[in-house]
Amino acid sequence: MTVVIVGGGLAGATVADELRGRGFTDDIVILAAEQHLPYERPPLSKGVLLGDKTTDDAFVHHEAWWREHDIDVRTGTEVQSIDLADRRVVTNAGEHPYEWLVLATGSEPRHLRLADECGKPVHYLRTMEDSLALKDALADGARIAIVGGGWIGLEVAAAARGAGAAVTVHEGAELPLLAVLGPEVAQHFADLHRAHGVDLRLGAPVTGDALSDADFVVVGIGAAPRTALASAAGLEVDDGVLVDELLRTSDDHVLAIGDIANQHHPVLGRRVRVEHWDNAIGQGKTAAATITGSAEPYAKLPYFFTDQYDLGMEYFGSVGPDGYDRVLTRGDFTGPFRAWWIRGDTVVAAMQANDWDASDETRASVGQAPPEA
Ligand SMILES: Cc1cc2nc3c(=O)[nH]c(=O)nc-3n(C[C@H](O)[C@H](O)[C@H](O)COP(=O)(O)OP(=O)(O)OC[C@H]3O[C@@H](n4cnc5c(N)ncnc54)[C@H](O)[C@@H]3O)c2cc1C
């Protein structure tokens, strides 16, 4: 009963790992377009740029582990098409029949033509190669323009300041991270970066002229799910590959997980597509459960973390399209900080910063009545 996994990122790697953990003894093949064994991406915008981690630290497992667990990882192998009727995939190097196919093709950075055509070197950040190239470019005194005040843009800004570069961040919204956090907490991130010497230019679309003083440009304006393969095969796709609670697509033998999966979430009661590390791991485990015949709906709340300067934060839950009525905060960003996004009399999302002991309590507060003010 061959399981073929398309994509050697964290989600794909986790399915294989979990299948072996559950005692699955049949063939597992990972078809991975990149030249590397599966690796995690969070260090690429943090420790690797700061120089306190190497890309070697990012691997999910080393070569010997994959061999010992009899998992066939084919790097440099891109799946070009899927034949749902015959249950086989075609790659640049041949064909693979499957009983179960798991799509874990991840996301790719959105491009900004204005930056691509500005005449300066332009960096995007998704792969190990991207991270190493950016690390090489970060140098004391370099002038860097970052387009996009989202997670990647702000993490790069923090690393670049750490390297002594002069950093300008251009963000069209009135605050960085405004759409995710709302003004109450986004303001703290703006203050944090300004306190570290970042020139934040907010509230207006970036222009070519604004980039002209920079030595190079980093674009971090979000990522798009890689769904072309699924669409071409005829699977249902709508902002990601549509999956149910067991991560099954519109084809009985095909699952989709990680950044590309647009899942019906049993707790949130709506569809969500989550582009975060924890989701890649959690959905990888659920996919393995589904394959081994154990129906374990993926019901974990969305979770993400970031590290910027000395700040480490975690966010649990999802505000979603219905928004929130108020935010309760405790502490400030220089020390332990907590925030709760509240709709009606329920916490819909919560975060902690600089207080890892508060993780479990913060996570548990989602879905509950708000704490006392
Ligand atoms: C720089 C960076 C920093 C991040 N930091 C954080 C963080 O701090 N916290 C957090 O929660 N999340 C973070 N994330 C997000 C997190 O890394 C992603 O959500 C996670 O990598 C998703 O895993 P995935 O396996 O779904 O996709 P990916 O990691 O994108 O892996 C997909 C793989 O599939 C391969 N592929 C695509 N098409 C094909 C094909 N046709 N054939 C074969 N292979 C194919 C791709 O080459 C890629 O290697 C970060 C992401 C980046 C880029």
What does this structure look like?
By secondary structure, this protein is of the alpha/beta class. The protein has three domains: 175 residues, FAD/NAD(P)-binding domain; 109 residues, FAD/NAD(P)-binding domain (3-Layer(bba) Sandwich), CATH 3.50.50.60; 56 residues, 2-Layer Sandwich (Enolase-like, domain 1), CATH 3.30.390.30. It has eleven helices and 23 strands. Strands 3-2-1-7-16 form a five-stranded parallel β-sheet. A hairpin with a 5-residue loop joins strand 21 and strand 22. The longest helix has 18 residues. It is globular, with a radius of gyration of 21 Å. The chain starts with a strand and ends in an 8-residue tail after the last helix. The model has no long low-confidence stretch (mean pLDDT 96). It binds flavin-adenine dinucleotide. The site of flavin-adenine dinucleotide has 36 residues, from helix 1, strand 2, helix 10 and strand 19.
Instruction: Please name the CATH topology of the largest domain.
Output: FAD/NAD(P)-binding domain
Order of strands in the sheet with most strands: 3-2-1-7-16
The CATH superfamily of the largest domain appears as FAD/NAD(P)-binding domain
Q: What class do helices, strands and sheet pairing give?
A: alpha/beta
- CATH architecture field of the largest domain: 3-Layer(bba) Sandwich
Count up the domains.
3
Shape: globular
